[in-house]
Design a protein that fits this description.
Blueprint (H helix, E strand, L loop, with lengths): L4 H27 L3 H24 L4 H25 L3 E8 L6 H7 L3 E9 L2 E11 L3 H11 L4 E5 L8 H7 L12
Antiparallel strand pairs: 1-3, 1-4, 2-3
Helix pairs in contact: 1-2, 1-3
């Protein structure tokens, strides 16, 4: 079966797509502090890597194998990123500055399950309201849409917090009470 040139190219391509996808997921898990899951995935990853590289090195006279390896690597990066987007591990913190202080944006966001802290702020052009919103990453895009719907001119900056400790919102997440029954609404 491996004698067939087209079959070999397809096998090398698929192996590298799978390998790089595992690599991407392992790196993300490592950055998120999930070391045991990352270690387990790395064991699978290295076996796939050795098999794929071995096939290429055993057949270096076949340039199509090297090309398949490189193309598979590139596609694997894209596939790994898509998988990570679907997993959406962790949380996102979004800082929002609204032009109108008297808007009821914090209340509307809290009713949707987001953790919101707000305070008065002063900008170059006058009074503003600043909000800091915590959300699971899987609801990130819906949060942006909600903010833009409620205040189309809001200034939004987002980042991933490294550590979260305390507060009622974190306790609700751990108990599984946040966003229950609101999967389509959030």
């Amino acid at each position: 079966m491996l004698e067939n040139s087209v079959t070999m190219v397809v096998i090398i391509l698929v192996i590298n797509i799978v390998y790089v996808s595992f690599f991407t997921i392992r790196m993300i898990l490592t950055l998120k502090g999930q070391r045991y899951m990352a270690a387990f995935i790395s064991m699978i990853e290295v076996v796939i890597y050795v098999i794929g590289l071995g096939l290429v090195l055993d057949n270096l006279d076949q340039i199509q194998n090297l090309i398949a390896y490189a193309v598979g690597y590139g596609i694997g990066v894209i596939v790994g990123m898509k998988i990570e987007e679907k997993l959406a591990l962790g949380y996102i913190t979004v800082n929002v500055i609204t032009k109108e202080y008297d808007r009821d944006l914090p209340k509307a966001l809290r009713e949707k399950g987001y953790g919101v802290t707000s305070w008065a702020a002063h900008g170059l052009e006058g009074d503003r309201m600043a909000l800091q919103i915590l959300s699971p990453r899987k609801y990130e895009l819906k949060l942006y849409d909600t903010i833009k719907t409620l205040d189309p001119k809001a200034f939004i900056i987002a980042y991933e917090p490294k550590t979260i400790h305390g507060g009622f919102w974190v306790k609700s997440v751990k108990r599984g009470k946040l966003f229950n029954g609101q999967k389509n609404e959030v």
